[in-house]
Design a protein that fits this description.
The complex is a heterodimer of chains A (about 290) and B (about 475).
Chain A (H helix, E strand, L loop, with lengths): L1 H23 L6 E6 L8 H15 L2 E6 L3 H9 L5 E3 L2 H6 L4 E3 L2 E3 L5 E2 L1 E6 L16 E4 L5 H14 L8 E4 L3 H9 L5 E5 H9 L3 H4 L1 E6 L3 E2 L3 E4 L4 H12 L5 H10 L3 E3 L7 H13 L1
Parallel strand pairs in A: 1-2, 1-3, 8-9, 8-10
Antiparallel strand pairs in A: 3-13, 4-13, 5-14, 6-12, 7-10, 7-11
Helix pairs in contact in A: 2-10, 5-11
Chain B lengths: L1 H53 L3 H12 L10 E7 L4 E4 L15 E2 L2 E2 L10 E4 L5 E8 L5 E9 L8 H42 L6 H7 L6 H64 L3 H29 L8 H17 L3 E8 L7 H19 L4 E8 L3 E8 L6 H12 L7 H11 L3 E4 L7 E8 L3 H8 L1
Parallel strand pairs in B: 8-9
Antiparallel strand pairs in B: 1-2, 1-7, 3-4, 5-6, 6-7, 9-10, 10-12, 11-12
Classes of the chains: A alpha/beta (about 290), B alpha+beta (about 475).
Chain lengths: ~290, ~475
């Protein structure tokens, strides 16, 4: 009887020690699936695998990256509970702000901001010079939910008095890199591309970008954010947040950031996205 | 040499001709192959492009074309391009967007020098030929229920169809080279194997009459080829018959020798018999009157002379009857003269001789003695009553020379040949001159009448001054 009680106590202690140990060490059950599109890096599987391993170590969770070729695809996954986080664009964020939590923002050239570029084939003598020249021309966009790749251009076209039917043709290339390629191949006479992507491609001396030139740059907008789904455990989100912010603090983190052409991550206020929200509202009214 | 060279030329020419024909055929089929490949690519493009046309996906249509157009013949030289057209015949995207611009009308317009039909006129696969030999091909892309969604368009420039002569020529030349390298030595080997036995047979035939038949028979090759074998066998039979003839000649020579011996034996027997009577008489005288010294001396003298005469005669006869393998000596002339002396005395013919030797005789004695004997007997017979015969024997390091001159009826060359011919047909009375001719030819010499302006007949005989073994080699 006493023996039974002692045994129970012993087992109970063992159990709680086990639970504590489980809690303090690698939480093998917890995982963070991060969705992303080819805004930047969907093709670079080796890099994503390294980044995933780094974040797994820092967060204590199993971190993996899931790639899709459209923002809508990512949104479908995250709202379907198949992703914990995603790296999306400002436009889909402002559209679903209530259901998404803002994670630390990428810092590009020290700031959480970027621009939209309008590009044309290099050395195109009688080519497009501005938004007004796009009448009767073919224009390449990146993604229907891209701020730089669609939303900003729509505003500019309206401002220039070019209606969508005035274009000879407008099409989506499903990725900023593809916009550069389409313009370089002269499939389109102009393209709307994420400035960060264009600059990073140029830094890497990619052939498609070297055959294009920028003819217009937009104002600065909030950089494409990392977001977490409402409903993910707070401690998991916290661990990811910390890991991202601390990346610039260690050598491997800096190597990874350098590959991304970024300086680090910093938590910002959602107010940063007000400009994009305004564009979205204007687009909503126009269509 | 000629067979292999001719063969090499034939081989190389054949290889080149075959290659030229193959190149022509290849050029003709190349166009059909290219068109077939393009059609296959168009089928692929149509299938892949259908959903993209439905989704109006310009970018993915472009990437499809960019990847697939690389498979088309001539793509590497930018002489081929492909595009997808929408239902109105405008470019959706092209593999070369600069030339085939998105949104530009295509059907019903002239693109790259070819007038394309209007969209409504393209109901099935259509080809438009260009003036440069190029072609544009258009194929409608239809939904499952037959609605035209768009078109596949492929444009091939003329130069793509031109045959790559360098590419065709290279294997042709390699083939010709290989053929030459392999077939020429093979042909050479075959030629040699054909030519060599023929040459050997020809060589044997050329030496018939000059070389021992048995030796030639040994040299004849045995052939597996039936044609060559027939020739070889015919020559073999000929040589066998020659062997028989040569054996017969040998027997004839021996027979003649014996016949000659027989002819003179009678005379010699007579010569031996002549002194025998005197010897017996002298012996009787000695018995009866031996007391008288004068009579005794005279009788012994007579006996001595008579015996010596017999001795000389038999000594002269012995070598003639015996087959001796020794070289000729000056003494042989003396012997022969002794042998014919009785005949000369009987016919009252004067005999003269001279001998001139500047180097050792090496010819076999038997042959030359035979000839000397025969010539002298014939000359004595021809000179007739009160005639004269002269024999001269001379020899230097190269030749042994015999000349026998006689007075009497002149022997003309025609008569000589007729005489020899007659003797050949087994005339036991003659044989003499034919044997001289045979021996001369056999040993590589000559036997003929000398050109003489005088009324005398002069027969000349010479043979090389070599011993018996060398004789055959020289004649061969």
């Amino acid at each position: 009887m006493l023996r039974r009680a002692v045994l129970k106590l012993a087992l109970g202690t063992a159990g709680s020690i086990g639970a504590a140990a489980h809690g303090a060490g690698l939480r093998t059950e917890a995982r963070i699936r991060i969705g992303l599109t080819s805004v930047i890096l969907a093709d670079q599987i080796a890099f994503l695998s390294r980044w995933g391993q780094y974040l797994s170590l820092k967060t204590g969770c199993r971190v993996s990256f899931i790639a899709r070729d459209s923002y809508q695809g990512i949104l479908d996954l995250i709202f379907g509970g198949q992703l914990e986080a995603a790296w999306i664009c400002g436009y889909p964020y402002v559209l679903h702000q209530s259901r998404l939590e803002l994670l630390p923002m990428p810092l590009y050239e020290g700031k959480p901001l970027y621009q939209s570029y309008l590009i044309r084939p290099k050395g195109d003598a009688d080519g497009v010079r501005g938004w007004a020249d796009l009448k009767g021309r073919v224009l390449a966009y990146s993604d229907p939910l891209s701020n730089s790749g669609w939303l900003v251009p729509q505003a500019q076209l309206r401002a220039a008095g070019v209606a969508p039917r005035d274009l000879r043709r407008g099409f989506f290339t499903h990725g900023h890199r593809n916009v550069a390629e389409a313009v370089a191949a002269r499939l389109a006479q102009a393209g709307c591309i994420d400035g960060y992507v264009w600059e990073t491609m140029r830094r890497q001396k990619m052939a498609a970008v070297e055959q294009t030139e920028v003819i217009w740059k937009s104002a600065q907008y909030a950089f494409p954010p990392l977001v977490a789904r409402d409903g993910v455990a707070a401690d998991i989100i916290e661990s990811l947040r910390t890991a991202l912010v601390n990346m610039q603090g260690d050598a491997e983190g800096r190597t990874l950031l350098d590959a991304l052409n970024l300086d680090g991550f910093r938590q910002e206020s959602p107010k940063l996205f007000d400009a994009i929200a305004a564009l979205a509202a204007a687009q909503d009214r126009a269509s | 040499m000629q067979i292999p060279l001719g063969l090499a030329v034939a081989v190389v020419l054949s290889a080149l001709l075959v290659s030229a024909v193959a190149a022509q055929i290849s050029a003709r089929s190349a166009r059909l192959e290219i068109v077939a490949t393009v059609k296959q690519a168009m089928v692929l493009l149509a299938a892949q492009a259908r959903p993209l046309l439905v989704a109006d996906d310009t970018w993915r249509t472009y990437t499809l074309l960019r990847n697939t157009a690389a498979l088309l013949p001539g793509a590497d030289l930018a002489q081929t391009r492909a595009a997808i057209l929408d239902a109105d015949g405008r470019f959706v995207a092209g593999s070369d967007p600069a030339r085939l611009a998105t949104g530009q009308p295509a059907l019903g317009r002239t693109i790259n020098g070819k007038k394309l039909p209007a969209p409504a006129d393209v109901r099935s696969q259509t080809s438009v030929e260009g003036s440069d030999g190029g072609v544009s091909m258009i194929d409608p892309i239809q939904s499952e229920d037959g609605q035209v969604l768009g078109f596949v368009y492929v444009d091939v420039d003329g130069p793509v169809f031109k045959p790559d002569w360098a590419a065709v020529a290279t294997p042709a030349l390699i083939g010709a080279l290989l053929a030459a390298v392999v077939l020429v030595p093979a042909g050479w080997w075959v030629g040699e194997h054909m030519a060599r036995p023929v040459a050997r047979i020809a060589n044997c035939i050329a030496r018939i009459g000059r070389t021992d038949a048995a030796l030639l028979k040994a040299e004849l090759p045995v052939e597996t080829d039936p044609e060559l074998n027939r020739i070889s066998e015919a020559v073999h039979r000929l040589l066998s018959e020659m062997e028989v003839r040569q054996a017969a000649e040998q027997r004839a020579l021996s027979a003649e020798r014996l016949a000659a011996v027989g002819r003179i034996t009678a005379a010699v027997a007579h010569e031996i018999n002549n002194p025998l009577a005197g010897l017996l008489t002298a012996a009787q005288t000695l018995r009866l009157h031996g007391g008288s010294e004068h009579t005794r001396l005279r009788s012994v003298d007579l006996i001595d002379r008579g015996l010596r005469q017999i001795q000389t005669m038999t000594a002269a006869l012995l070598p003639q009857a015996r087959i001796e393998d020794r070289p000729l000596e000056p003494g042989d002339l003396e012997d022969v003269l002794t042998l014919v002396q009785p005949e000369a005395i009987r016919l009252q013919v004067r005999l003269h001789s001279d001998l001139e030797v500047t180097s050792a005789f090496r010819a076999p004695s038997a042959m030359v003695r035979q000839v000397m004997l025969n010539l002298l007997l014939n000359a004595i017979k021809a000179a007739g009553d009160g005639g004269a015969v002269h024999i001269s024997l001379s020899g230097n390091e190269h030749r042994i020379h015999l000349a026998v001159r006689n007075t009497g009826a002149k022997l003309t060359p025609v008569m000589l040949e007729a005489r020899i011919a007659t003797e050949r047909t087994n005339d036991p009375d003659g044989f003499g001159l034919w044997i001289c001719r045979e021996i001369a030819v056999r040993f590589g010499g000559e036997f003929d009448l000398a050109d003489s302006s005088t009324s005398a007949t002069e027969l000349q005989f010479w043979i090389p001054n070599h011993d018996a073994h060398e004789q055959v080699a020289v004649a061969g």
